[in-house]
Amino acid sequence: METPVEESENKVVEEKVGRVLEQAKELQESASSLISRTNNDEQSLRQRALSLDSSIRHLRSLIDSLLSQKLLDHKFADKLEEDLQRARCILADGDAAAFLPTKAQGGFLKMFLGPINVRATQKDVQLKVKEEYNSYRDKTALLFLLFPSTLLCLRSWVWDGCLPAFPVQLYQAWLLFLYMGLAMRENILQANGSDIRPWWIYHHYCAMIMALVSLTWEIKGQPNCAQKQRGVQLFLQWAIMQGVAMLLQNRYQRQRLYTRIALGKAKRMDVVWGETAGVDGQLWLLCPILFLMQIFEAYVGLQLLKTALVGVVPEWQVIFCGMLLVFMAVGNFINTVKTLMVKSRFKAKMKRTKSKQELY
């Protein structure tokens, strides 16, 4: 039988537990009420964002229609178009972007992550994703330059002109990891509103497949090692050129991108892609390197095909990698030319606007 002291203690504990239970229920009700109000506010903001986005699209179509009918002055139309572009950047690059419809995630992300939403609702989190992508590109660009350079140097100084199979396969495994990491990050950036051309993501898919296939490619040695490894040697030389191009892009073009963001002509989530170019001085430096790299890439692919067809290394992996290299070179060339044409039209438009301003 309980004593009066024990009964008193039990009642005190029971009252405390009861208060805690009531507080938990009150907190749950308050949280539910807050979430309900937040959902209603979010729905209202989402409708306003959709309405504003639709208005911007409608006004752009209206301006184009008036210009085609010659009912609007070109100078005034350019000013309106610039204001609409700034409004679009504010909408797409600010906190309101979280209320715009999200892009559907591609099959690549679903294959590795499942049906998980990778879109960040807070802009600072999105920018951290972009910063991590830029950091990854910086680190891998240096490795892209040093790894094949080291292999070629060791081939000449240590391995008597004949590459062992294991270091080359280790390099191909690293390429598979590299391109998979780039493709994963670019898909996440695209889901968060970054303007990445689809071709460059597809290009990394092709590079992943080529690296995977090349891991099953038996690296031939002596006798006649130089002829059998000619394609591998050319591929390593092309990789060095690509590493140089990546370093130049990361250093110069990112500065230009920051300028465009400051002018309201690009979004903060946009990134430097493989074929972008900066100001005129950078164009003269980067474009020859890019075109030379694409021509050399196609040449390496053709050399691999020739090696397989003449019977030096008659393996299906050699034929597959050769065809894939030629395909990627053609795709890179077409996308680079398209970008330069867009830049040329934009510069011509700016010159026309400037000349009209001088007339006035």
UniProtKB/TrEMBL annotation:
Coiled-coil ranges from the UniProt annotation: none
Keywords for the protein's UniProt record, in alphabetical order: Membrane, Transmembrane, Transmembrane helix
Transmembrane regions: 200-219, 231-250, 271-296, 316-337
Subcellular location: Membrane
Superkingdom of the source species: Eukaryota
Protein's membrane topology: Multi-pass membrane protein
GO CC entries: membrane
Family: Belongs to the TMEM120 family.
PANTHER family (alphabetical): TRANSMEMBRANE PROTEIN 120 HOMOLOG, TRANSMEMBRANE PROTEIN INDUCED BY TUMOR NECROSIS FACTOR ALPHA
Record-given protein name: TMPIT-like protein
